[in-house]
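Now for today's protein.

===
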Amino acid sequence: MASLPLTRHPFHGDWNYAVHPQPCPAVPAPRAPQKPAPEWDHALLSDPVLTGMSRQQLSDLTDTLAVDGDVKRGRPPRLAFPDQVLAAVLHLRVALAAEPLAVLFDSSRTAMHRTLLKIRTLLKAHSIVIPPTATPPAALTALQARVQALSGDPSSMIKTTC
């Protein structure tokens, strides 16, 4: 207590006192260098094992939904329409939450939630059902590693708890 910069109050100075801020160092402490994220192929997201459909079927699904969903009004979307469809398929097929999808597609959580709602609405309007997979595919571990590598970045939008 003796080393702290405080001013004791004249009345009961043992518990009535003011602590004064200490001056901050002029130079911030250097950050530890971040190791670069491991290289990976963005095409892994459209892997038929993950999506449950061939790349041609995914393209056909995108074309079907684009008639009603790829509108050019209002705020421009953060993701291209094919990426929006792919994100929704991954969400429905392998139960990826919006937060990891936002990291994988370099988007924000809010934009990803909006995208998933939009595409689920389009799928329902077209009576298209994306069945969930019974067991998680092995390719999901590569996506998990990518999310963890990107989430370790201090500029990431995803915050971890404790």
Q: What stands out?
A: The first helix runs from residue 48 to 51.
